[in-house]
Amino acid sequence: MSRERTFNMLRTAVSMIAAMLVAFIIILFVSEQPVESIKIFLVQPFSSRRYLGNIVETAIPLIFSGLSMAVLFQAGLFNLGGEGVFFMSGIAGSLVAIWFQLPFFIFPFVCIGVGAVTGILVMLVPGVLKTKYGANEMVTSLMMNNIAYGIGCYILNNIMRDPSVSSLVSYKYRKAALLPTIISGTRVHLGLIIAILCVVIIYIFLYKTKGGYEVRATGTNIRFAKYSGIRVTKVIILVHVIAGAVAGCGGIVECLGLHKRFEWTSLPGYGFDGAMIAMLANNNPFGVVGAALFVGYLRVGADLVNRFADVPTEMIAILQSLIILLISAEKFLHKYKQAWIEKDVNIGEVKNEGVF
């Protein structure tokens, strides 16, 4: 592992610790029993199987979202379309889960396949606009989120809505379409295994294949990639296809794993969370799993401290924002990074002098 990569990992850890310290300061100011509140926040998520299951189930959609964003970031693209992809893939997969009738052993996977294809189609729009017209992918993806949300709400309200329920929800899914629970006493479902499989596949693609090398080379220096003969246009399209498929799987997996009908009436927020997860993981697929579990732990802790103490759950939004600010700030610990890398260079020069 290079010293630069090691430094980036340490920098991320420092960012998380700093954010946690700020959380403790907030608790000290707002809580009448700060010590007890901090104890609940830190320890209680690990106090029972149910709470541990809550951490894992919270992390599952974050893994899909973070993995999707990590692929895009590896290519140097800042596409926030995962938000709309989650919503539309949930809608498309739900249509299948409501109206189709298939054997239980293939039904969920057909729904997930439909969600993945929907994710690809939604994500391809900013990808094609980027390659063909040079449109900024961040702007076009944000616009696509609104378009996807509008289309999805129309389908939900006019095609899928259950008139026997007062709230805006769909008809119930067929039981054979639901993802089974894999850990008793929790709501952790088969989506966890699907998410881990996606992580392994994306890792192999990025670090063990020619296509993955082209993606990383394009993200490191797009001009160098062009001069090296890499077809950058193809890479951008490929990355959008992969990211769309992963986020699309995440959208419908969340619906089939934790819900019995489609219940989102607004964008679920996972697309924006994915950017934070990818940053925490330094765009490493396996790091995404750890980052998602960490954020899941923070959210469960914030929920518990809100229920059993007097600290508002809005604290988690402050934590997440601080983490993103510190990680994305290039100057944060910059002078230590320079010294760290220069030390590595000096050690290398000494070794070379010893050889010759």
From TrEMBL:
<feature type="transmembrane region" description="Helical">
    <location>
        <begin position="188"/>
        <end position="206"/>
    </location>
</feature>
<feature type="transmembrane region" description="Helical">
    <location>
        <begin position="106"/>
        <end position="129"/>
    </location>
</feature>
<dbReference type="GO" id="GO:0022857">
    <property type="term" value="F:transmembrane transporter activity"/>
</dbReference>
<feature type="transmembrane region" description="Helical">
    <location>
        <begin position="270"/>
        <end position="295"/>
    </location>
</feature>
<feature type="transmembrane region" description="Helical">
    <location>
        <begin position="235"/>
        <end position="258"/>
    </location>
</feature>
<feature type="transmembrane region" description="Helical">
    <location>
        <begin position="80"/>
        <end position="100"/>
    </location>
</feature>
<keyword id="KW-0812">Transmembrane</keyword>
<dbReference type="InterPro" id="IPR001851">
    <property type="entry name" value="ABC_transp_permease"/>
</dbReference>
<keyword id="KW-1133">Transmembrane helix</keyword>
<dbReference type="Pfam" id="PF02653">
    <property type="entry name" value="BPD_transp_2"/>
</dbReference>
<feature type="transmembrane region" description="Helical">
    <location>
        <begin position="12"/>
        <end position="31"/>
    </location>
</feature>
<protein>
    <submittedName>
        <fullName>ABC transporter permease</fullName>
    </submittedName>
</protein>
<keyword id="KW-0472">Membrane</keyword>
<feature type="transmembrane region" description="Helical">
    <location>
        <begin position="51"/>
        <end position="73"/>
    </location>
</feature>
<keyword id="KW-1003">Cell membrane</keyword>
<dbReference type="GO" id="GO:0005886">
    <property type="term" value="C:plasma membrane"/>
</dbReference>
